[in-house]
Amino acid sequence: MSRNRLTLPVIHNLFLSQTITPNHLTAFCYQLASQTNDAFNIFSQLTPIDRIQQLAEESTQRYAQKKPKSILDGVPISIKSNIAVKGFSLTANSNILQNTIGYDCVISKKLKQAGAIIVGMTNMDEFGMGSLGTHSNNGYTVNPLPFLKDISFKDYIQRIQDGNVPLVNIGTDQSRNVLSPGGSSSGSAASVSMGSSIISLGTDTGGSIRLPAAWCGIVGMKPTYGAISRDGVVSYASSLDTVGILGPSTTCVGYTLDILRNVKSESTVEEEMDCFHHTVKDSTACFIDSVCQGEFKDEDEDEYGQLLNGMNVGIPAAFSVDGCSLPVRDAWERSMERLIQCGATISVVSEDYISPETVKLSLPAYYVISCAEAGSNLARYDGLRYGSFYAPTPSPNRRRESQFAYTRSMGFGREVQRRILAGTAVLSSDRFHTHYEGAANIRAAITKQFQHAFECGGHHGTGGIDVMLIPTVLSGPPIVAGKDAQPLDSTEAFQNDVMTVPISLAGLPSISVPVNTLDGNSKENGDWQPIGMQIFGPRKSERQILRAAHALHSMVMKQDGSSSS
Amino acid sequence: MRTLLCKSILANISNNSAFSCRSLSAATSSTSRKLVYNRDTGIITDDTSSQQLYRSIIGIEIHAQLAVPTKLFSSGPTKHHPDHNLDANTSSSIHDLAYPGTLPLLSKSSVQKALISAAALNCRIQELSRFERKHYTYADLPFGYQVTQQRWPLATEGLITCRRYSPPQPKTKGNNARNRGGQSKVSGNSSSQEDLVELSKFFDVGIDRIQMEQDTGKTTAVSIGGSKTQYLIDFNRAGSALIEIVFKPQIHSAHEAASVVSTLQSLLKYLGTCDGKMEEGSLRCDLNVSIYPISPSDFSGDEADPNNPFKKYLPKGAGNRVEVKNLNSLRQIIQSAEYEALRQTSQIINGSPTGRETRTFDPKSGKTIMIREKGGDVDYRFMPEPDLPPVRLNRNILGKNSVQEFLDDNLPELPEEAIHRLMHVYGISEASALIITSDRPAISFFVDSVALCEQELKGDNQIDTVTVSITIANWLCNDLFALIKESASKKEEKESLEGALNHPISVEYSNVSAEQLGSLVALILNETVSTTQAKKLLGVMYTEELNSLPLDIAEQNNWKLISNMDQLKSLCRDVIQHGKNAKQLEQYKLGGKNVRKMTKFFTGKIMAESRGNAHPELMGKALQLVLKEIAPGVEE
User: Fold this and answer.
1) Cβ-nearest to A90 among B101, B137, B381
2) Lowest mean pLDDT segment, chosen from A306-310, B115-119, B187-191, B244-248
3) How many CB pairs below 8 A link A and B?
4) CA gyration radius for chain A?
5) What is the pTM of this model?
6) Residues B388, A283: C-beta atoms closer than 8 Å
7) Shortest CB distance from B144 goes to which of A105, A233, A379?
8) Whole-complex ipTM
């Protein structure tokens, strides 16, 4: 396992030059995934070995003929367990959905058409409900970050060619502290972090991609709500659920986004609604432009322009909250400096534009809306048509309603039941106006404030804001198991989402970038924590936020790389 | 005044009590009062004292399945899809079963048909409407919620003009098929001119809203021995597109309620937006029945049902509304409205007025049965549907730039307009116009037939348009529809559904075209063929020689009238002078009574000889001439 992660342009060149083949890389990743799974619990389902070998061989043949399907051809990827893929159970890591047959949804079709090789389905918090990766029917996922070693690029390639997967011994000591990888896309982030898949698809409802990306030291992007089809995604909170991408670099995320994004079909006649088309199948879809313009670049560098000349980066004062830890605050400031070094202008977005009160209320508003929608979306799971059916043992011939109730209380985990009950409560006729409508008003307010700030929130004379920079999460990953593990209150755990949910409520695109990679010196230092910074922009500004994120990430890698080697 | 009213209604009751009234005894410990309900006026009368006590007031909610081939939110086939399968649980997409990961995609044709229906019901069309989720748990509701339009419906504030319902009349002798259906006369018991509750032929009922929503699956209870019941669920219907039409409580009687439903049923069928088959559940009906005192002095002062959204439409003193759910025939609507009116009255008389209730109708006993009391109303936890954007009636959905443009192209002439046109432009009877307009393609069929017939009769100034139209209407409404009906019910293969037809009873499925019918009627009117021959011709055209012209068939079969005088005379001579008839000729020559008697005899013989082809009147004339020629001077 290496801190040095292979990126798509690098892999593409290695494949084209036949330095390594898809066979090599797939075998390496697959072996890494299966060997570490007992210890790390990253995958809840792995592709059968003969199937994955066949796919890798087909891709190897395509490269031999110099006819790869896309930059993802032959690239091992993983997919979060709440996305439907043919050949895998669609479980969302819930007991209630065991043996629910998956199918090829819009995005799994796109990945297959691009030649990507699916290693397996990743572990997650049940139905996406959780921030720590602990609420899975499969048990918690272990954050691999502390176990990653420095391997030089040359050695890494050598190992891949030789099929020499490094053994990972995380010890058998039960008291050993386990860091949370973040959730709910916990397995996805951990897999990319470890290198058992190059890219992973996740979903982000209130931060479920950005938070684990930050805590696993990788890049994670939640595009504009609707930019990637939700077809095949097990709904948690429909108005917030967004499919996104986790990867080792911003370039990787950008290339994958170009493959997955909803594209207005040229074949549909003017009157057709594009969301009906078989490449979208999502009425809430929106359409974004290409972020990479489809070119395969030889080099990772300069993909989005190293220099951010003319870019106005906003720092919303309202997000400077008390709970922000010192290292995070430092990292936030260093990130501003790095962006300035890249040529960006920094302006503070005053509280006149984005009110601290609205930001503060966003978290409860988010939980009201997401629980209401979750309660509604999960009402369908009764064990009658598909999924698990639990028959009450003493009297199996009870009424349907009590059979449903029994199945649901057996099939749903505790956190899911909590949220369903909360959701049922806020939709009841005596609470709807105070709770649900109240939350909807806050959502409208934060959306409007963001929009206004992007339009004219800059300093006098500089006008609008292109992107904003805030931390992804206020603190480092908590210890979820081991001798120092602290029981975490469910409501306290909600605090992890305070920086991500306002952006989710507004449906804006956001990308989390790791800003303090583990270097040689700090490795032994127990205080070290992975930190992620979020760059977000107005709706459909994916290209812009990727450009800023790329500059920031490149600076981090450059400065970090020089200090470690 | 009051006594007069009572008398007239009583008179009606005694005349027609068999089918229009029903009585119920409100038995208390001390007294027993017999109550009588008038199905036309909705008035409940004490039979003993003849005192009018209460009147029913009714609101209706109708669920109509839109006649579209796919579900409201998926490509799953409905019963209108050519490939649909009747077997249980075979016609659902995974979305219809609420399989995880599938999302709703709104069917444009459903919105279009809902819009056409709403426009025909004179509604205010909302260019922006929204879907919401209505939550409740039931095994045949796959999502745990129904997607509907509670707060932002597609259409509001409509109006339906209803033709007053007349119950099917018992068949009287001589009431042949030529007179069937379409009686505009209201039922017997209320036609008295003394009635103060005036029942006009038409009445208006307001429509509160029309909303689009999803249908559920279907649950069937099956007894599995003993007291055990098994519930079988068929999801084929789940997700089908419905419109719910909510009528204001402006309906006063059981027959008015039936009129509303039957008018709506024919209108939707006519528009092609719903097949209207109540027996198949394509049109389902819920009634909200309450009663109010006729005399204001009976009003206790306590307002019942304060949360009723329709309170403002109800007369003072109206009681709690009782909802009777899932009625699927006009008969059930009439019976349940009547039962409820009487039940609620007798409850009040007995001192225990009914509360807010939901009931169901038991067709076996003719009674309504309580499902639940509405003390603890179900909380449906309405929530905006997050998977669907608001419905905007724009080019994307309508294919036209505006609602008006869409309706200009897609909303046809409405049935009442068509009836008016047929009666006043073509001069046909209302009964015929009703039959023709009940099958929309029949209107243009009729118009085309008339045009062709007139063309073929060109130059014949004796025959005017009205004659042509009336004759065509008669042939179309009676003979041709009879043939269509016959071929529709003839089953070639064993059908799995009882009562299933090979095809709908519509001229669309007629083997005889408008042109063929037109030229056939032309042959009748210009006396080329007789009515009897024409019937044979029509039969042959319908079943055997589908593409032949009636004249060709007539000539082939020698089914033409003999109108040539010389030919007729020679026919007469042959018969009269035939040796077999010598006796009769001798008898004729005796004169007196024998003349008429024997003329009749010869007429029969000659007609038989001509195989019925002799033109009757001309043949009569020819016979007179021939007889005078053979036996001159015979006198009556």
Assistant:
1) B101
2) B187-191
3) 100
4) 23
5) 0.85
6) yes
7) A379
8) 0.92
